[in-house]
Specification:
Blueprint: H1 2-11, E1 16-21, E2 24-29, E3 34-38, E4 50-57, E5 60-63, E6 69-75, E7 80-86, E8 89-97, E9 100-103, E10 107-108, H2 115-125, E11 130-137, E12 140-144, E13 149-155
Antiparallel strand pairs: 1-2, 2-3, 4-5, 4-6, 4-13, 6-7, 7-8, 8-9, 8-10, 9-11, 11-12, 12-13
């Protein structure tokens, strides 16, 4: 809490000078207080556990229902995607090329879950047996299907 108080104090009624060295930004107040910021590395496409945060259709996005466990990991060596769809586990062939991921047929477990979780799962299953466009942005990824359905996910720490 003391760090947050010191940081907020530095921002109140102060003018900053800035200095950039490589990936480091230093902001210095007139009184000599400094804030050092460094760039966090981008999450790699492969090997990262991507936790799904929302599903979209066109310009409308929805958060996942409470209790949904939806995530995926791309494995370059095996050429696969594996993870969970909200309820069931999934694996599929995955080929990454030129900003696209071609997903093969989904192989899933067969558990039944709450209706909202099954709705999430059906939406995510719609991405398989097709090619999606992906866009990495620092620690997030967006997948867009040919019919305009979107999946937003963040890199899991």
């Amino acid at each position: 809490m003391s760090f947050e108080q010191s940081l907020s104090h530095a921002y109140v009624d102060n003018t900053f000078t800035s200095e950039v060295k490589g990936d480091k930004l230093t902001l210095t107040t007139d009184g000599g207080d400094r804030v050092n910021l460094t760039k966090e590395p981008d999450a790699p496409l492969y090997g990262t556990k991507w936790t799904v945060t929302s599903l979209g259709d066109g310009d409308v996005a929805q958060s996942l229902p409470e209790g949904a466990d939806a995530h995926f990991t791309l494995d370059k060596a095996n050429g696969t995607l594996s993870g969970r769809l909200g309820c069931n586990h999934v694996t599929a062939k995955a080929t990454v090329r030129d900003g696209h991921i071609t997903l093969g047929a989904a192989k899933t477990t067969r558990m039944m879950c709450d209706g909202s979780l099954m709705d999430t799962e059906r939406t995510l299953l719609g991405l398989f047996d097709s090619t999606v466009v992906y866009e990495l942005n620092h620690r997030s990824i967006a997948l867009t299907s040919t019919n305009g359905k979107t999946v937003q996910a963040v890199a899991d720490e």
